[in-house]
Amino acid sequence: MQQLPDWVTSFPGSVTVSDRNHRIIYMNDKSAATYAADGGRALIGQELMACHNERSKAMIQALLESGGQNVYTIDKAGQKKLIYQSAWRDEEGQVAGLVELSLVLPPNMPHFIRS
Q1: What φ, ψ does residue 27 adopt, rounded to 5°?
Q2: Which one of 1, 19, 102, 108 has the lowest number of neighbouring Cβ atoms within 10 Å?
Q3: CATH, domain range 18-105
Q4: Residue 72's closest CA among 62, 60, 63, 82?
């Protein structure tokens, strides 16, 4: 994988990247901290499917096959988070893996409607 810009490393949201073979290939600082109890950066090179249930495994595989996205919010440990999972593509336009962004949402986040 190409070297990512420095801003990605210290970005306050979790950025986790896997390849098409379900191997974790990148974790930024926030991702490594989020998964510290599971090994943090030691998870790089490990099998993504090993830490997911059957429903999640099916979703991961579907995203890899379709090249699509899966977006939802969760409440975890008193924080609301936006989870954005998307396929990423190589230089030839082929699905090469998945990116997961996990962003903590402020409790009173404003919502605007723009026309």
Answers
A1: -140, 130
A2: 108
A3: 3.30.450.20
A4: 82
Q: CB within 8 A of 23, min separation 6: which ones?
A: 45, 46, 47, 48
| CA pair distance 91, 78, nearest whole angstrom | 40
Contacts of 97 (CB under 8 A, 6+ apart): 17, 18, 19, 20, 25, 64, 87, 88
Q: What is the pTM of this model?
A: 0.90
Q: How far apart are CA 50 and CA 36, in angstroms?
A: 16
Q: E-strand spans in the chain?
A: 14-19, 24-27, 69-76, 79-89, 95-105
Provide the residue ranges of all domains of the chain, joining segments of one domain with +: 18-105
Taking the chain (115 residues) in runs of 10, the rounded mean pLDDT of each run is 76 96 96 95 93 91 96 93 97 96 94 93
d(CA 81, CA 93): 30
Instruction: Judge contact between 11 and 30, C-beta under 8 A.
Output: yes
Token readout for 9 is: 């490393």
